[in-house]
Amino acid sequence: MYQPYPTAGQGPPPQRPEPPQPVLTAVKLMYAGAGISAISFIVGLTTIGGLKQAIRTADPSLTTSQINTAVTFALVVAGFFGLLGIGLWLWMAWANRSGKKWARIVATVLFGIDTLGLLSAVARPHTVITLVLSVLIWLVGLGAIIMLWNRESSAYFGVMSGPRY
């Protein structure tokens, strides 16, 4: 019969605390960000005609071949970053809910990068719907970052990243 080696003064392992409401709200916002990113990805793929017109309007001197090349390039880039964005939203939701201190920092850096991406989207040819979705995604990210950095969330991340014996 197996009996574990007796340990003096040790009880059961400490329970992991449940994430506080602000962290749970941030996680829900991150899931919403993934959903809106998926919608944006689909819309981006279905608005080729509007993108062609936006490129043509931005530079009327382009030939049809140049416009088609620009649209193809835009679709490849949008596809890559669209899928990457969805994956990052889901990964950050999981990691932040788990209380990983690094995840809050990574989420903040990704939000900074998204801010630059939004500014870039305003500056280049775009359709109205893709710009609206980009702004909506940015606002969701802003909400998540605010929730992740409030006092209650900071205490949670501090406890979760404390020493583990």
Question: Which properties best describe this structure?
Answer:
mainly alpha; 165 residues; elongated
What does this structure look like?
This protein has 165 residues and is an all-alpha fold. 76% of the residues lie in helices and 0% in strands. It has one domain. Helix 1 runs antiparallel to helix 5 and helix 2 packs across helix 3. The longest helix has 34 residues, at 64-97. The two termini are 28 Å apart. The mean pLDDT is 87.
Which secondary structure elements does this structure contain, and how are they paired or packed?
Elements: H1 21-46, H2 48-58, H3 64-97, H4 101-123, H5 128-148, H6 151-160
Helix pairs in contact: 1-3, 1-5, 2-3, 4-5
Please trace the helix and strand order, writing H or E for each element: HHHHHH
Distance between the termini: 28 Å
- Give the mean pLDDT: 87
The outline comes out as elongated
Helix content: over 70%
> Number of helical segments?
6
The domain count comes to 1
Structural class: mainly alpha
State the low-pLDDT regions, or none. Answer: none
Q: Please compute the radius of gyration using only Cα atoms.
A: 22 Å
Let me know the number of strands. 0
Report the sheet-strand fraction.
under 5%
Biggest beta sheet summary: none
